[in-house]
Structures are given as structure tokens and as C-alpha cells.
Amino acid sequence: MDFPEELPKEVRKSSYPCDICHKTFSLKSTLINHKIIHTGEKPYQCDICDKSFSRLQTLINHKHIHTGERPYGCDTCGKSFTLKNHLEDHKRTHTGEKPYPCDICGKSFAAKRTLTGHRRIHSGEKVHSCVTCSKTFTQKSDLEDHKLTHTGEKAYHCDTCGKSFATKSTLTGHRCIHVGEKAHNCDICGKSFSRAHHLITHKHTHTGEGPHGCDTCGKSFTQKSHLADHKHTHTGEKPYQCDTCGKSFAAKVTLKGHKRIHTGEKAHRCDICGKSFSRTHHLIIHKRIHTGERPYGCDICGQSFTLKSHLKDHKRTHTGDKPYHCDTCGKSFSQTYSLTRHIRIHTGEKPYQCDICGESFSDRGNLTKHKFIHTGEKSYRCDICGKSFFQKVHLLSHIRMHTGEKPYHCDICGKSFSYGTGLTVHKRIHTGEKPYNCDTCGKLFSRRSGLISHVHIHTGEKPYHCDICGKSFSQSSVLIRHKIIHTGEKPCHCNICGKSFSLKIQLSKHKYSHTGQ
């Protein structure tokens, strides 16, 4: 083909191929610029921050970051851009034009760079690598967001509440909290969400789908991030560290929740009773107190639970599985929290302190029970006899006295009990186990209550006071027996002749008159 003499030399050939990657260009100057990619040469340096670039135009565009200049303005909405091609892409948001289709799935995009990023979903290619930890990403924006986890920088601020975020997308999602906007609706149950990915995750609850599987144990997860955190349980890795106390965690969400211990933040409020919580799932669980919902049912015995983890632990009572072992004494447990509580017997740790009297406890439940002493609150009332209790579980156990139900059976001697703790304590008769040790004299006890009462012998403490005559006692059981003197109550009935007694021991002696033993 003959080109007219007046045409520039650059366009006298139909194409200029790169001799390294064989890509072709219509202009010789474009080929020269392209070859710099292969040589790694960056001859254009920014005189402000010293960053270097392979192309002059890229340097010019970069300098707009320092000057704040956005020379390309949209004539429809007035929004400005540092790059001309970014303006062209933006204009398509007004026209709705999407000229870049994916040749694999057919999805179309308004910007060529968005299509390029999308194609990597199909290819699995991750071209953007973090220089700090070597983690790779399909899109540059994801890498930039990731880098902030190393620097701790939170450049995006909410202009309503002032909270800061590492990524723009997180800020956008957060703003929906203030406006109450929930634009993403589930077409199955109608529930609405402020973020699209929350809707996607929610839909898995309907389908039961867990698309992200662990290649070590086979467990499946609805979210890829949950799988990544789960894998740390196999490796023992705890990459998320608290910058306040130094404690490390396997999951980012656990660190986030932990940090609220230091800040005292309780952002999630119950709209029924007003109680606030530091974590969303704590609020969800709390609300089940109001609704009575127990969504996790045992397929063996039918018992229901508010938490999935409680169901999992419960199932081990059927299987006898005890996978959690104490490194000190070798004792095994079916539940993690039972092991944690047990370990405190060895360490003497009492992390739960009463903010009224300062008394400390090894178990959170014991602190909760203790606090009722100060408040005097007994919210749970028996419909049969009118007796009130501090806790619902105590009421349920009490009701079994009326019904005679004893659902807990000893697999050694067959004896039955109306509540689980009674069976646990009973089994120590067979095993001889006495896990509670007196620090003063070394005496061992099979029950914690026995140890507590015993300790009062050493201290001389008599914490149980009669509100009628003021007399004090070292044990609650002795106070209960004492009060019968004032009330004249005789709660122990003989099932043979119907005679009543104040004390159980009196009833036992009486029964000998019937049996002759």
C-alpha cells in the first residue's frame, strides 16, 4: 500500500508489532511507550513525591493527586475527574450505555477497566500483589483496600457520626445505618438489607447452600471470609492482633468484638427492652428471650436451643463424645466452656467481678446469680405454688418437683434426677471425683457449694442472715432450716401416712417406723 508523502511517518505502516509479546499497535510512538512495560524503565519522575512512571501522560495524571486538579468535568451533573477516560466512563452512568460485554458470561459494563477486572473472576487471575504479605488480588482497588489493614489508615469519614473507615465501600454501607435505607430485598421472605452482599449471604439461609468448603475438614461456609478465618483453626494461626492489649485472634470479626471491651461501645440496642450489646449476634440471641424462639432442635430427643453451638454441645450428651481435654489433670469435657470453667479450678482465676460488692467469680453465670442477692429480683414465678426464682432454669427444675419428672439418668446405677447438675454431682459418688480443693487445709469436695460452706469455717464468715431475728449462719441450708422455726412450715411429707415434718432428716427417721429398718 502506498501512503501519501504528507502523512506522518508513524502511520505509513498498517501495524507495529512488539517483538517481545507480539501485540500490535497502529502508531509507532504507542509501540515505543508499550516496550517500556517489558524493560521496566520509568524515566518520568514526580518532583513532589519522587514516584516514577514509564509514561509522561501517567506522570501528568499522577500530579493531579498533589494539586487536587480535576480538569475533566461532566456537563450533566458537574462531577469532575482527573482522567479524561474516567469522565467518558462516568457519562455512561447517565446514558445507561454498557458497550463492553464479557465474552464468557455476557454481562456488560460501562467501563473497559471494569470488564478487565470482571474477566479475572472467570480466569482466577490475581495480578495485584501486596508487597508486605504477598497476598494477591484480582483488582487493584481490592489491593489498595487491603494495604490499609497493614497501615491502619482510615481515610474515609462519616460526616454524620464521625466514624472512620479504611475503604470507601465500607463507608457507603455504613451511611445506610443513618438514612435507614435498605434497598436490597429478599424475593423469598421479603426481608430487606442495606448492602447487596448481605442479601446474597442471607439467601443461603433459604437454600442451605454453603458454597465455600474447607479442604481439610469439609465444613462449608456461606462466606469466603468465614472459610478463611475457619482455616486458622487448623493452622493455629491468629493473624488479628489487638493494638491495645496485644491479644491475638483467628477471625477478624472476633477481634472487632474484642476491641469493644476496651472502648465499652455497645452499638446494638434492643428495641423491646432497651438493653444494649457490643455485637450484633448478641442482640439477635438476646431477642429470643422476648420471642421465646429456639430455632435449633435436636433430632434425637426434640429438645430445642437458642444457639446452634448449644445444640452441638447437647448432641454430645447422646454420643458421649468429649473432645476437650484438660492439659493439667487429663479430664475430658463435651463442651469448650466446661473445659474453660474447669481450668479455672487449677488456676484459681476469677475474672467476673461484682460491681456492687467487689466479689469475684470464676463463672459468668455465678456472677449473674450473685447479683440477684443485691437486687432481690425474682422474675420467674411458679404457677402451681407461687414460689419465685431468680432464674428461669431454677423455675423449670422446681416445676419437676410438682410433676415428678426426672429426665436425667445415671448410666451406672440407673438413678434419675430432675436436673442435670444433680446427675453430674451424683456421678462423683461412682468416680470418687472431688474437684473442689480448699486452699487453706487441702480438704477436697465433690460440690462447689460444699467447698464454699467449708471455707467459712476458716474465715468465721456468716453471710446468711435471718431477716426475722437477725441471726447469722455460715451456710444457706442452715438458714433455710432455721427459718422454719419462725414460719412453722413443714414441707417434708410422708408418702405413706401423710404426716409432715420441718426437716428432711426428720422425715427420713420417721419412715423407719413404717419400714422397721
From TrEMBL:
GO cellular component, one term: nucleus
Example of a GO biological process term: positive regulation of DNA-templated transcription
Record GO terms (molecular function): sequence-specific DNA binding; zinc ion binding
Alphabetical UniProt keywords: DNA-binding, Metal-binding, Nucleus, Repeat, Transcription, Transcription regulation, Zinc, Zinc-finger
Gene3D superfamilies named in the record: Classic Zinc Finger
InterPro entries, per database record: Znf_C2H2-type, Znf_C2H2_sf, Znf_C2H2_type
Listed SUPFAM superfamilies: beta-beta-alpha zinc fingers (SSF57667)
Domain C2H2-type, first and last residues per copy: 16-43, 44-71, 72-99, 100-127, 128-155, 156-183, 184-211, 212-239, 240-267, 268-295, 296-323, 324-351, 352-379, 380-407, 408-435, 436-463, 464-491, 492-517
Superkingdom classification of source: Eukaryota
Locations listed in the record: Nucleus
Family: Belongs to the krueppel C2H2-type zinc-finger protein family.
Protein name per Swiss-Prot or TrEMBL: Zinc finger protein 239-like
